[in-house]
Design goal:
Chain lengths: 539, 352
């Protein structure tokens, strides 16, 4: 998100889901769309049936490749090298959009300088693709009338995540694929309200609408609206720094609403160590999960079907959530619980409904000020929507107007993942999701049928590696990293290249995050879930 | 496209050029029954129930497949048409095991609805002895091909809407039936259980396994909401009876999904009613989490937060919000951390 915010202006999908169907070329990099965003994948596949060319760049032979015109299976963590070489070729063959670059961007010289050393031959050595394939990708993207680029966590979950995102944005700016329909840079958000939680300012440096906490005027505006004298100036800490703070003793209490961090954060032992060191852990959730087991207090929360409110989807669309059933027992809305704590600490928020909270949000949030519950009764509205006459925004940067004047190229050099394979740990572990489970499994594993279809963790192992290690399909094996070991069943498959294996974090019995590496992108604090070094052991 | 005008049942109507007769009628509030046609699967031209008479054309015309022409004169409810429709429906009824009594689709079945409107009690044709095994192999979907009317909607849904390319028509002649892959049981096929076919099936041939016996269609309240899984934000209809979600379908008339869902959105709802749901606040006492009142849990927490803030400063408290809860809850949480605790230490797992 930070990568997009710094190049284009807003940390969100530039375009809309419905525009996918008309994109002449769809370029999917680092997104297992059919499993993680199946309904968007349907639209991509429909586009293919109508004549779009679907191009997939992914280290795994994901299901989407079945519908792709071309699959470029580059190495885990080599995205920048690949895309820089693609840009090198595009510029060399004069296929870049000079008008767009001259009129609407800054920093093109810097980009040229950076990508100049990424010849296809050089990049080939990093990403494991033949130089001709890199040239071919550059030709496809360079010759296309328009390209719509999609990425997910395959791009962001690296120590170079922000640079990866910037590089995707650089490519689309170079080709002038910004500010028009069926194009753009489109991150697909993995959880129902990640976009919304960011938009709402549940981040250490911004208030709603990404209004910076560092600006006195912003703090003054919110302090006035909330009726407090002052608001904190110093930037807060991101999740990884919170854990470090706990371990170093600076952080004493954690208020955790609805995240199962023991399962979802990298290097589980480190997370548990931090939780055990806390003086006070308050958990607000719908189940006792692996994290809540460490809590001092657990608040029972209502789930999506038991409350009113809004979620914001990946295309910036604010949509209604409606109460359909009563919560079990004494469970209450998240906001009610927080308000009650607030009241007891001497600050009366006084909300009586979700709509009342929304009214306050929109009064302080310019990009959503035109969105009311009444207006989204039937269909959600995409921000920016600045007043009640505004119909919302399908795609950003129409007429090439960018929030900071011009779009900025922010070229980056390729860097390897923080932990690379060696003699002791010779295989790269990359992680992700399966279609038939979700996240840490708290919802799908308690819904009938899912465990029947997808009952346990499967480690994807390439047949050549399996043969070398004498592992057969269905054998239980250990995956061992410097941080721990996990036992799971081997799935011998050419979905992964030699030297690579794949796991998920769906199963508490065998969670990849026991062994993933707790190193983070310095800007966003995103962990490198997509690459660490492991050893596979036959049992 | 330029509008054209025609007469339907004596009424002068207008429609955009290129529309079918069926579309022209529908736009002007004239009902023509259909079974294979659905706005999302478009015309399949299979069921022939939408036949009409067109002045100057011989025989009956299939209105879903014939373009309306300027000046056309169309009749939709003549005796001849009604008799033909009755015959078609009776043939369907005789060619399958359509026992409405405990059929899951009763109340939402389109075959039942047309039979009702045509006043058909039973079929005059001899019943074909159909006894195909019911495919229960998929954990989420039941396939009873004895109730299939071969309308092709499921096939179009699977191939052209969800584009999973699993379902097709297999065999020919009287053995013709919808198959998964090379006639595998659904649970052993390449089906990814999105349920698009179930949602578009007009009869009880494809039904949701978890919903069986839970509620009749008319007994449930339908509540529109947003899916709680990934970021696509699909619009759902929760079918609710007696405070229980008994079924989920995709909302067909809105972005972003226009009725499509995946396995999680369509079938991953019963965690809501899991007996493992937290029902009471818990407070750790003597090392164990024990059920306490809201009052006790909230008072304890507020007191401890205040004490820690007092002793170690506001930055010694951190908050992790929720990327699954509502905007309103996320906002209140960040407001609490900033205005009440007095720290910017607020984050959420935006990154996993």
């Amino acid at each position: 998100m930070a990568g997009l915010a710094s190049t284009l202006g807003a940390g969100a999908m530039t375009n809309s889901i419905r525009e996918i169907e008309n994109a002449p070329v769809i370029f999917v990099i680092g997104s297992n769309t059919t499993e993680a965003h199946p309904v968007i994948a349907n639209i991509m596949k429909r586009a293919v049936k109508k004549g779009s060319r679907l191009i997939v760049a992914d280290p795994r032979k994901i299901s989407l490749t079945r519908w792709a015109a071309r699959h470029f299976q580059h190495k885990v963590g080599s995205d920048i090298a690949l895309l820089n070489a693609v840009m090198h070729e595009i510029i060399k063959n004069d296929r870049h959009d000079k008008k767009f670059i001259n009129n609407y961007t800054e920093g093109f010289e810097k980009l040229m300088e950076t990508v100049s050393e990424y010849t296809p031959a050089y990049a080939s050595g990093i990403c494991g693709l033949p130089a001709d394939e890199i040239r071919e990708l550059a030709k496809i993207l360079g010759e296309a009338e328009k390209v719509a680029l999609f990425y997910t966590l395959g791009i962001t979950e690296h120590v170079t995540g922000t640079d990866n995102v910037r590089t995707c944005a650089n490519l689309q700016m170079l080709l002038g694929n910004i500010g028009k329909e069926s194009s753009g840079v489109n991150p697909l958000r993995g959880q129902n309200n990640v976009q919304g939680a960011c938009d709402m300012g549940a981040l250490p440096d911004v208030y709603t609408d990404y209004q910076k906490a560092a600006y006195p005027a912003v703090r003054k505006k919110f302090a006035k609206a909330w009726g407090v004298n002052s608001l904190p100036e110093q930037e807060g800490t991101k999740i990884p720094a919170m854990f470090d703070g706990i371990i170093h003793g600076n952080v004493k209490a954690l208020y955790l609403a609805g995240e199962n961090i023991v399962m979802s954060e990298p290097n589980q032992a480190h997370t548990v160590k931090a939780l055990e060191k806390l003086e006070l852990l308050i958990v607000q959730d719908i189940f006792i999960n692996e994290t809540a087991e460490h809590a001092d207090v657990v608040f029972p929360a209502s789930c999506f079907a038991e409350k009113d409110g809004t979620f914001t989807n990946t295309e910036r669309r604010v949509q209604r959530v409606r109460k359909a059933v009563k919560p079990p027992g004494l469970a209450m809305d998240d906001w009610w619980i927080t308000c009650e704590l607030s009241r007891r600490m001497g600050f009366e928020m006084g909300y009586t409904s979700a709509e009342q909270i929304w009214e306050e949000i929109r009064s302080l949030t310019p990009s959503m000020s035109g969105i009311t519950y009444k207006r989204i009764e039937h269909q959600g509205i995409q921000w920016p929507c600045t007043d009640e006459e505004h119909n919302g925004t399908c795609y950003l940067y129409c007429n090439n107007v960018f929030p900071c004047g011009k779009a900025t190229f922010q070229p980056a050099h390729w860097k390897p993942p923080a932990e690379c394979p060696d003699n002791e740990y010779p295989i790269v572990l990359t992680t992700g999701r399966r279609l038939y489970q979700y996240h840490t499994g708290t919802q799908t594993r308690l819904s009938a049928g899912f465990d029947e279809i997808c009952p346990e963790e499967l480690i994807e192992v390439n047949p050549k590696d399996a043969e070398k290690l004498d592992i057969k399909d269905g054998d239980y094996i250990f995956a061992v990293s410097r941080r721990g070991r996990v036992k799971a069943k081997a799935w011998v498959t050419d979905r992964v290249l030699t030297g690579v294996c794949f796991m998920t974090f769906h199963f508490r019995e065998a969670c990849a995050n026991v062994i993933t590496n707790d190193v983070f992108d310095p800007v966003t604090g995103t962990a490198e879930y997509k690459a660490c070094a492991v050893r596979l052991e036959k049992i | 496209m330029k509008n054209i005008s025609l007469h339907i049942d004596g009424k002068y109507v207008q429609t955009p050029g290129g529309s079918t007769i069926l579309a022209a009628a529908k736009q002007n509030g004239i009902h023509i029954p259909t079974l294979c046609y659905h706005p999302r699967t478009r015309q399949a031209g299979k069921c022939r129930l939408c036949v009409v008479e067109v002045k100057g054309l011989p025989g009956l015309q299939v209105s879903c497949s014939i373009q309306a022409q300027d000046g056309m004169v169309v009749l939709t409810h003549t005796e001849r048409i009604i008799e033909t429709r009755k015959m078609i429906v009776e043939l369907y009824l005789s060619n399958g095991k359509h026992n409405c009594m405990s059929c899951e689709a009763c109340g939402s079945c389109e075959l039942q609805a047309v039979a009702y409107h045509l006043g058909i009690e039973k079929s005059d044709f001899p019943a074909v002895d159909k006894d195909m095994p019911v495919d229960m192999s998929c954990p989420m979907i039941i396939r009873d091909m004895n109730k299939c009317i071969q309308c092709y909607r499921c096939i179009i849904a699977c191939n052209d809407i969800a584009v999973n390319e699993v379902l097709d028509m297999g065999y020919r002649g009287s053995k013709m039936t919808v198959v998964c892959d090379t006639d595998k049981p659904m649970g052993k096929s390449s089906c990814v259980v999105c349920g698009e076919c179930v949602q578009l099936c007009p009869t009880g041939a494809l039904t949701e396994k978890k919903a069986i016996g839970k509620a009749r269609h008319w007994e449930t309240e339908k509540v529109r909401t947003t899916c709680p899984y990934c970021g696509v934000g699909c619009q759902l209809q929760l079918h609710v009876k007696d405070n229980e979600i008994v079924k989920v379908t995709g909302a067909e008339d809105v972005e972003p999904n226009y009725g499509s869902l995946c396995i999680k959105g369509r079938f991953g709802y019963d965690f809501v009613h899991s007996p493992l749901r937290l029902k009471s606040p818990l407070l750790r006492k003597d090392g164990r989490l024990e059920e306490v009142s809201w009052e006790e849990a909230l008072n304890f927490t507020a007191k401890r937060f205040s004490e820690i803030k007092q002793a170690h400063g506001p930055d010694s408290i951190v908050g992790i919000g929720c990327a699954r809860s509502t905007n309103e809850s996320a906002y209140v949480m960040m407001k609490f951390m900033r205005a009440v605790i007095g720290t910017n230490n607020i984050d959420h797992c935006a990154r996993t």
